[in-house]
Design a protein that fits this description.
Structural class: mainly alpha
Largest sheet: 3 strands, parallel
Shape: globular
Strand order of the largest sheet: 4-3-5
Radius of gyration: 19 Å
Distance between the termini: 33 Å
Strand content: 5-15%
Number of helices: 9
Order of helices and strands: HEHHHEHHEHEHEH
Helix content: 40-55%
Length: 211
């Protein structure tokens, strides 16, 4: 959880922007760490970590095995859900994605106004993590989430094409493109994200990525 803010050099894993531990911290609103305010070590101290549920502690240790009970007992993970703090987290994420200041400011203004903001990218866990950040900051995230998923086929691809056209081109909603996942997918690049990204570039809608 020393990685929650993202302003660091990763000591153990490749720094890729696809850190599941960091994404989970964002999801629960833990955006900074206050060390040395929890007394005690061992399993008893682990229970003092301020997480949403007991099984989240186990999940943290699974995601980061070096976080042993003694170390976890020394961390007081403070939930900081204020609007200003959430906006700061969102701004830093846009900066890391490569957004220029003009487009980042436009997106932030839309979020602060409570507008709908489209989030696209490869790997829905990554997309949903950023969508949660948008919601936490006061915006209303929109992601491609079909009710009846039937796998990758012509119908679902066309539905995705219609979805991005409606939100990005017809409706003119701001779009956050988080790009492809850092590690190649075993099944190859996502055809859904390919449609979304190519569409944005074809319509002249800003994205820092050009597939």
């Amino acid at each position: 959880m020393l990685f929650v803010e993202g302003n660091h050099y990763c000591m153990f894993c490749e720094k890729s922007g696809n850190c599941e531990l960091q994404a989970m911290a964002y999801r629960f609103g833990y955006t900074f760490v206050n060390v040395a305010s929890v007394v005690g070590v061992g399993e008893a101290a682990l229970g003092k970590v301020s997480l949403g549920a007991a099984d989240d502690v186990a999940r943290l240790r699974m995601l980061h095995p070096r976080l042993n009970p003694a170390e976890a007992g020394m961390l007081n993970l403070t939930s900081a859900n204020s609007g200003a703090d959430a906006i700061g987290v969102m701004s830093r994420r846009l900066d890391r994605l490569g957004y220029d200041s003009a487009n980042a400011d436009r997106i932030i203004q839309s979020i602060q106004s409570g507008e709908q903001v489209v989030v696209v990218g490869e790997n829905m866990r990554r997309v949903n993590a950023v969508a949660n950040m948008v919601n936490d900051a006061g915006g209303r995230a929109v992601t491609y989430a079909p009710r009846n998923w039937t796998g990758v086929n012509r119908n679902t691809l066309e539905a995705n094409r219609s979805w991005i056209r409606y939100w990005a081109k017809d409706k003119g909603s701001p779009v956050i493109d988080i790009g492809r996942q850092p590690t190649p997918r075993a099944t190859g690049p996502s055809p859904f994200y390919a449609i979304e990204n190519r569409s944005l570039n074809r319509w002249g809608i800003y994205t820092p990525f050009d597939q």
